Amino acid sequence: MLGTYMTSDIEGRVNEVFQIVFDDLDLMVGRQTTAKDVEDWDSLTHINLIVAVEKEFKIRFTTAEVTNLKNVGELIDAILRKIG
Amino acid sequence: MEINLDYSRLLKEARAIRPAAGTPTLRIALLGDCALQQFLPLLRALFCRASFLAEIHEGGFDGTEFAALNPESALYRFEPDVIVLLNAVQCLRDKYYLRPGDASDFANETLSRMTRVWDSIRRHSSAQIIQSNFAAPIERIYGNYDLKVASSLPASVARLNLRISEEARSRSFVLVNDVEHLASWVGRKDWFDERFWTLAKSFCAPELLPLVAKNIVDIILSTRGRAVKCVILDLDNTLWGGIIGDDGPQGIQISAHGEGEEFHRLQCFLRELKNRGILLAVCSKNEHANAIAPFEQNPGMVLKLSDITVFVANWDNKAANIERIRQALNIGFDSMVFLDDNPFERNLVRDMLPEVIVPELPDDPSDYVKAISALNLFETSTRAAEDTQRTEFYRVEAQRQIAEATAASFEEFLQSLEMKIEVERFVPEQLSRIAQLLQRSNQFNLTTHRYTHAHCEAMMNDTEYCLPLSASLSDRFGDHGLIAIVVARPDVVAGSLEITDWLMSCRVLTRGVEEYLMNRIVEEAHRRGLGRVRGEFIPTSKNGMVKDFFARFGFEKAREDADGRTEWALETAAYTPRHVFLQRVGDISSIGA
Question: CB A51 to CB B7 under 8 A?
């Protein structure tokens, strides 16, 4: 289950990053989405995802943030903290 | 020319790879003490751009020694063409920190473990080894004084890099992947991303992994026929500052100090390339007399007329002139680089001759060499004594063409050349040149097997089952050097001599060399009591000129595959030796087993 679909600008941009990283233009992620919900979301693509998010928002996560993100919602919160 | 090395773009390209039937395959084993998986899509995508299909074996994490030292390992079962060894300085740093004693022997011990891996691979495989060196570490314990402390980490890494180069020089089967160059080029504070080392053992910052992959691919492609053989130069505001037609030979800017120093530096760089064996040609919109004047009259010029193999100055369009240069040199468009300050000319050549490599040059001539260097256009995997003579070979060839034009008949011309040919089994002194010809020849090449130096050595030593021959040609104008390779294998059971490889330098076509060699091959089959000679043709995108090679000599087509491969057979009794104007040097028995 993907939970609530994203609507805000940030959430939309995050979703686009997911679509590019996982090469799936139909992919829709929500705050509750975890790695288990997305095909090919493994430790390698996780790094690709972090690199792509950092580039999109011109931010830099700490090692702990990269490790501890539990779902897309936490990713969005982390982005908001950095650009806010 | 733009090389897109965007990380996510390459990942996307890798997902979209759909190889066409018949795409040549490269078997690459990747071993290292860092995350290797990340490299797979990048290597696949870059090889796909070069029209190769990469089959990649991924070694276990930090499993290089285990795989290399065990003859039964999955590495050797994979039968790789190339073994890529990646060693991260981050991993070296861990070992340095956790060393049991003092660090005075750290570099030497690390090096001997590396050379042991190389030499073990050499015993169990003919694969080419590509060994990375180390990015200089970012840690400083003593500050600048680190370099005065031989056992410090920075001093150890510097020494290790030097020793890797030295040990590789004495082993033709080891090529160096200069990671330190890449890291310095980018800047080490950006190169290292310690987060991703901690989390995933990423070799460097992930966005920079494509640079490492490109370096590896450049090296491998240089062992597979990709080579820049000629640099074509514009003159005004490319090779010197100013316009020769307006400023005159003394008015242009070209001098070692002061005005035109940046052009002087470019010319020095080009002269180094020429000394290395890369041909220089001029393609300029000018009156010919004006264009050559600075070469003859301006003492500031580094390049002399004798450094230029083909000089074309006229008012025709540059694409037509580059085609003339290509014909004169008999090389492929994809082995030519065109340098011109004028964006109009660059775009015209890109449009009309898309295979020619046309680097984008910056507005400021001071940055030309940097822009050219960034592209790594001149990668090579071999170096032979003949390289330095290459410009001379072509210059002498021009004299032959004049002789040909003035001779009463082609036969008379061939006779007047007084050609001498020496055919012999591969010998150790020639192996570098032999491996180079095998790696560079694309057009006159019947099967395009890209043997490594190690393969050539194995064939040389296999006196029972392999007849690996090289031919060297000279004539009254000068020496051509080693210009042809034929590998044949006697099959006593089938009663035939099998030609597995036949390739020649395009410098010596239509001289009768191939006729002479075929005479010798048939003679050799006779001598061994073999009643038949068989051969194979494997088509590539470049060797169309030899599609009918065997038919020319009266071979019958025995087989044709859907992919265009053909097999041919000739009854030796039915062969009439071809008339040639070549005089044999050396003894016939020199090639026999």
Answer: yes
